[in-house]
Write a structure and sequence with these properties.
Layout lengths: L4 E5 L4 H12 L3 E6 L2 H13 L3 E6 L5 H15 L4 E4 L14 H27 L4 E6 L12 H21 L4 E8 L5 H6 L2 H6 L9 H12 L10 E4 L7
Parallel strand pairs: 1-2, 1-4, 2-3, 4-5, 5-6, 6-7
Amino acid sequence: MQGQTIIVTGGGSGLGRAICLGLAEAGAQVAIIEINQESAQTVIDEITAKGGKAFSVIGDITTRDSAKALVDAAIERAGRIHGLINCAGVYPRRPILEITDADWDFSFSVNVRGLYNVSVAAIAHMQGQGGGRIVNIASIDALKAHPKNAHYAAMKAAVVSLTKSMGLAVAPDNILINGVAPAGIATEKARAAGFLPELAAQTALGRAAEPEDVADVVIFLVSEKNRYMVGETVAISGGYFIA
């Protein structure tokens, strides 16, 4: 991926961090869109310490204008972008009969509207440069019942749907949009939440995913090695559905 620039939203921690590190190792320059400047800088320092290239653009993706400004700023600095990975997200847990209006609004604003806003801004540039790749981070929760976290599951189901519809709309422009639907990932936040042992017991492999397990698939999808996948969402679950 030498000479390519890939935007990663939410690249300052967890899966986003692993994706950024993997992209840099593959030779790409990484443009991190983050709301948390400190976490973004930590990842940048990790990348540059190993000889890689990375920079950040700090701001909020939940409004159309701010998301466009962030993407435009990244492109102004890099010259052009070759791919986008929509990894920014929030994971609010609440029993299904206790979800508030504020819970719905917050989850939608980041997990769906934010993803859409950044994608629209990036697509406008990709259409003028002959194509590109976009990868959306959905969740295995989009594909199964989740009464303890139904609003999150609904938002990720919307991501799966957007991946199909946007993928179909821009495939003629050589813009390939795909997604991944991971099961539990062993990030620091997930470990702190305490549900990984339960999830691991439900998988065929008997463990949660390491961030790199998912990042490697994402990096393939955003690379030029992906030539014939569009509108797909790939489940990465350790055999969750066959266990």
